[in-house]
## 1
Amino acid sequence: MTGVADALVVFGITGDLARRSTLPALYSLSQQGLLTCPVIGVGRRPVPDVELREHAREAIEAAEDDVDDVVLSEFLGRLHYIGGDAEEGPLYDRLRDALAGAKLPVFYLATPPSMFLEVADELAAEGLVGDASRLVVEKPFGTDLASARELNRRLTAIFPEERLFRIDHFLGKEPVQDIMYLRFANAMFEPIWNREHVASIQITMAEDFGVEDRGAFYDPVGAIRDVVQNHLLQVLALVAMEPPSGDDDAIPRRREDVFRAMPAVDPREAVRGQYAGYRDIKGVQRDSDTETFVALQLEIENWRWAGVPILVRAGKALPKTATEVVIRLQRVPQLQWGGHRLYSPGYDDIVLRIGRQAGISIFVRAKTPGKAVSQPVSLDLDFAEELGEPPQPYERLLADALRGDPTLFPRWSVIEETWRIVQPLLDDPPPIERYEPRTWGPTSSHALAAAHGGWREPQ
């Protein structure tokens, strides 16, 4: 249901996610004139408004290079706080008073997923869910296919699908959205974006840091649940989908088509790794079988992509931090005339950088001076340098939630398909293999890509 929200309720407003992302995003929306409603923060601790506002000021000043004092003052003035246990009625009595007169509130749960149901149930029990209310929840949505189905069944009984917004912040990243525009706004790409010209697709999400002080959070999750089932499959859908057309539902429909055409992953075509020293981290089980690295091969069984291997890897404690999509083109035949042969080593890749230093590199062939050899030469575009700094993901996503635009929020049918695709890895996981920090994962992950030219290491 569309319509601009007249109140925003943020559960978990004193938490780490709100400090790093939510509060700076709300300030930016205020600066753009897109946040016009009161913001009611909810947390466990009894905190006066003045303390919350100081907390918000510090978070915003830490995140922003240049803070507009007038805008900041205006934002802080619409910020209020309600403290108490999320399972107790008195908190919701105070929330009802704070929402007096609001017809279209948005409830945003910047909380652990374990709290989604209890908060939604309490909101419904206390009569705070109207016909236009929306609920925004963070990932992960469930821990496997069965739990996701149960969570969805219970949440949609309170907030129907059209009013339930599931955040995947990767879809709010400007470089991720740029994938669609690069494909469909440039005549040079779309004619070759298919199995006739593409030899393979690679997606790499590498982090040069480990789990550090987040062991208790990360150990029950692992790389498959943390980034593959959500972030990286959503990126793949934008890379592989058909051109959108029609109504506002066009892009979600096209993303869903990709997932429906994908068989579930075969555990025999996957590698799980764990970096040395992970089990020594506080909060990690001493015999932990959690993967900090995963590499796998996928397929899309449709007319455009049949037979094209799709290689996905993600890991922590790798040599660098980068997220890249590599479209590897088919090799051209070697040229030969008379006694001459033009050698063409290497691969012709289109590299989409969607992490740090976002941009695109297109590798074309140039003759090496004085030799009958061609070599790849890159044509590079840095998005920030050429187009300016993009908005942060939560700016776009929260703005869309406030106005009821679901385009960038995965709907249930998509979430269900992505869990189906990775479920065999959860049911029958390959054995954990150790790898040393600052390396590119277990050796067997290199063999997974060897037949397709090997992994391209981010530059």
Note: Residues 171-388+424-450 form a domain with the Dihydrodipicolinate Reductase; domain 2 fold (CATH 3.30.360.10).
## 2
Amino acid sequence: MGYITTVLTAEERARAGPKGGAQAAANVALDPLGGVSVVIDSVPQGQGHRTVVAQVVGEVFGLPPAAIRVHAELDTGKDAWSIAAGNYSSRFAGAVAGAVHLAAMRLREKLAPIAAAALNIGPDEVRFADGRIFAAANPDNAIAFTRLAGTSHWSPGSLPDPDAAALRETVFWTPPGLDAPNQTDEINAAAAYGFIFDFCGVEIDRDTGGVRIDKYVTMHDAGRILNPALFDGQVLGGFAHGVGAALREEFVYGEDGSFLTGSFADYPVPTACEIPSPVILHCEIPSPVTPLGAKGVGEGNSMSTPVCLANAVADALGISNLTLPLTQSRLAALLHDLIRHPRGSGEPGGHISLDSRIQSLDSRIQPSLE
């Protein structure tokens, strides 16, 4: 929250009190029949939160993801939450899934001594896998997870420590280093930073101004990848948004102030036909800050793709000043102006004609694309 308060002056912040951090909350519970349910404080809009949470908790307890019930319908009247709760800033993988992992681990730590007493082994010898809890040295010495997980409900008096029932765990987690801004507005805006490297090749139709993306490569280091399919889905979604912002989408107003692009007939959102399949590469360097080593990937290409495409078009045309979006009409007007009025030697692009620059670029780029 700290970087949001930099819109205030230092004096205004001092009156309001310091604000910082990015707390996430999660609750993991066992029901009387040994089922596992999770409540998170981040409401998804199709990103796959439930899938990842079920996977994270399943790995802790040795259960299939289908056995985990995940509730993302946050009720601030009864569910664990804080003012920082929510689905924003690519915080799910690092903060929310991390809080889920911590809660599940604490609950497993409570289950371990209960299992150890039932199996007549030490707590450090207890293992969880394949829906069973068993002894590390003798896997046949086992009990079903559902049977043991319901013990604290049905028979708390039989527990080794009746005050240590394994029923539920709630975790509030906030990363270190997210302090309030100082007097000079200096602020660490995120706990973990992902890294992106993009490059692309484009072709521009010299008559229509249309831009075709020949090849687009994007590499991401977003820490530990929790679910590869959902990770790549986030990259593809951000890429589609980035292509739209770079080449098509624009708010246009008339001279009288009327909004001229208020429908999808006039506001051209790209469809699957206009979005090529990028080459997605991964560089997985876990974060030392977050519980699972994840950094977040949701916003990456929505920021990097417009810049990458703009740089490619600028390079192709030999100019350095472009305004997004690079619509066909805008580029066609620019191209025709360049042809009619070649730039002088002191201007970007020099005195070489556009056709000559294109031919020169073709000779250098084509071998690399092939």
Note: Residues 92-119 form the longest helix (28 residues).
## 3
Amino acid sequence: MADPIPLAQRMAGIDASGIRKVFDLAARMKDPINLSIGQPDFDVPEAAKQRAIQAIQAGRNRYTVTQGDAELREAIARALRREFGRFDGPVLVTSGVSGGILLALMATVNAGDEVLIADPYFVMYKHLVNVLGARPVFVDTYPDFRLRADRLEAAVTPRTRMIILNSPCNPTGAVVPAEDLAAAVAVARRHNLLVMSDECYNAFAFDAPFASAWPLYDRIILLRGFSKTYAMTGWRLGYAVGPAEIIQAMTTLQQYTFVCGPAPLQAGAVAAYETDPADRIADFRERRDLIYEGLRERFRVTKPGGAFYIFPEAPGASGTAFVSRAIEAGVLIIPGGVFSQRDTHFRISYAASRETIQRGIAALNRLARETGA
């Protein structure tokens, strides 16, 4: 038997994504109640599909410039000007928001730096910070998933480089209200820190107008995308805006990593901006209400304000143990320890049909009763 091939030391701190493990499991199961994957169940807007097809047929199948096609960058800039009143900064089209996260961290974080991350967190933050030789510092938001400035302040050290904000949040669905956002950004300003604001789910704010960190500070890297709002998860398109020197550094890194976004799909994304997602967002608000009302009597659960996730506390204290039982019963959910330093909760994605959600509610409540909840 051949000796094992040694891998780079940076791989020691990374394991296979718990989300992808469940995704792979779903592909092998017959008719599971799949509440695991954060992927909209509606289709890409028809206008976007047709524009992409037209671009392919017109021969727009070659590389674009690294920073993205000019037509899409201008469409993004127009949208930001409508939202914020002014916008004149550079735009970088990224390979999804995930690509933007990687480029932003690579461009700004050194080995030994500390990055403040609200816990629970999107799984990618922790692992990418570790890959770069930096240290993730987790700031607890339990039990209500509220971002508290005093907890951020207490976590700052001379090595702190960045605060990562994520609103609406994956996995909790929490939306940071404007006053909490301003207080968090004030901590960054006081200590001259960078802020990376992951606003991938910005369209999915159900109970109040969405508050963005972008206008509050001149050291914010804003990351948004098309995957969730327009169901383009497989198109891999997002964008980054921020301080010019950081966006330029990210663009340079993109030359040697992702190269550029897919050319015909960038054309389709321009057309997506011409559609209105309001009806889809209203539908997800109704699904949020359905699953929250269906679970709240049996589970300790905070009502999410956005995205399409809910993060209940697991009966019996162990999220992993409860999720194992749920999967045995045919319900696919994600253990909270994938997203947190705690293993007390589990994540549900309600980006599923109402029929699937209702089946999931019934099965989870049955499991909770069996656990004594």
Note: The chain is about 40% helix and 15% strand.
## 4
Amino acid sequence: MRILTALPRSAEPELLDAPTHDLAALADNLRDLRALDGYLGSTALTWRALWPMLRTLPTSAPVTLLDVATGGADGPRILAARAGRHGYELRPFASDRLADVLRLARASGARFPLLQHDALAIPVRDAAVDFVTCSLALHHFDPPAAVALLRELCRVARRGVIVNDLRRGRLAYAGAQLLARGPWHAMARHDGPLSVLRAYTLAEARTLVEQAGIVGARVQARPLFRMLIVVQPARGVAPAG
């Protein structure tokens, strides 16, 4: 018997989703997200999903990777460095809808192409890149947009798609509230717990994948209330109806 009722998904927008931002506050938030990635291992989670696919390829040719909704672009930089230690030339590029975010990413050391665009309309042809990643962004999209995002990520990927995000739940929300008491700036303290409330459960994520018509996706629970959606090959998408 279920003792606690399910935690409903919030439709309240995060501060990061506001149409305009104070540049200093945005920079503070990106630094906080960089530090949190070090503590919680979001990029490491993506790497663990990427490596089994990457290792099947020869090291003789470069491999391309697009990181969508990249934020500070730390993820693709770390992934390229890890791939290099295994003998692979991983050529990343990254994108975000906010010009200020990309400007800050460049200032923080991103030395690869950065594109500004809506995540639901990636300006590259079908199967244009080997791998597409999207980290901690799915919860920013309401269900219809999340379905469209998953389809778009699969459209542009040739070999695989990796989406990692939070999983909504009462323990996850309690943990986020506790973590928000740490030495973070105002945006991270506000958006952290709200991100959990906006996140999808594992069952909801599977429904999104099904509605997107994606064939062969693995939707997996991961530690610290996170999830992975892995599609390989990424071309397994049914035509839009």
Note: Strands lie at 63-68, 90-96, 114-116, 129-135, 157-166, 218-222, 226-231.
